[in-house]
Amino acid sequence: MENLKGKTALVTGASRGIGGAIAQRFVDEGANVIMPSRNEMDLADVASVAQYVQAHANVPLDILVNNAAINPMTPLDEITPELLKAFEEVMTVNLESPFLLSIGFAPGMIERGGGSIINIASLWGILGRGNRALYSMSKHGLIGMTESLAQLLGPQKIRVNAVSPGFVGTDMTYQNLRPNQIEDIKQGTPLGELVPVGHIANAVLWLASAESGYITGQNIVVDGGWSNVGRIAPPK
């Protein structure tokens, strides 16, 4: 299949994990994929993002995937320089930069008759998580941005959607969680496993393709049913 043949896509955070899987899936479907390195565009620096957009304004971009994000474990019990720094970095990388990229590349998409913007949000963009409040706040904001830009850009034929992954079976997940935690997640998931990273890529591919041509302003949760069970009866 070549659902994206002739299309050009930009994917942030594509060196590994979810972003890497998305980029590879796009390549497999015939797309030309741009994967900016940190040296080319520092998402923690809004000036760097703005400069990148200006320098690449003539790139015939059809698809933008805002995937890159950070999720620091910063103590939240008092206001400290560390907390203020983490707050600024999380909001810049996870929210401000996706906004600037979306607004910055939209004019080119409009000139070419439209496009698709997909934001990688999170379960913690629809649920709260106390010890990861900064990350959760940023992802709630990203979903709000998705809905707002869908309204703003829809008349110009740009679709804007989000995908919210659950607990994905990436190397980072296995590094950050203990075996018993992973087992608890599996037991609390109706489909019984961590989310295969390829299923996130499949959802993004669908939103990028013409097959979802009348879908915009939506947030697709890909978590094997974990959040649905958790809201009704938390796993024991």
UniProtKB/TrEMBL annotation:
Gene3D superfamilies: NAD(P)-binding Rossmann-like Domain (3.40.50.720)
Regions annotated as coiled coil: none
CDD domains: SDR_c
Origin: domain of life: Bacteria
GO biological process: monocarboxylic acid metabolic process
InterPro entries per the UniProt record, alphabetical: NAD(P)-bd_dom_sf, Sc_DH/Rdtase_CS, SDR, SDR_fam
Pfam families reported in the protein's UniProt record: adh_short_C2
SUPFAM superfamilies referenced in this protein's UniProt entry, alphabetically: NAD(P)-binding Rossmann-fold domains (SSF51735)
Similarity-based family: Belongs to the short-chain dehydrogenases/reductases (SDR) family.
Protein name from the UniProt record: Short-chain dehydrogenase
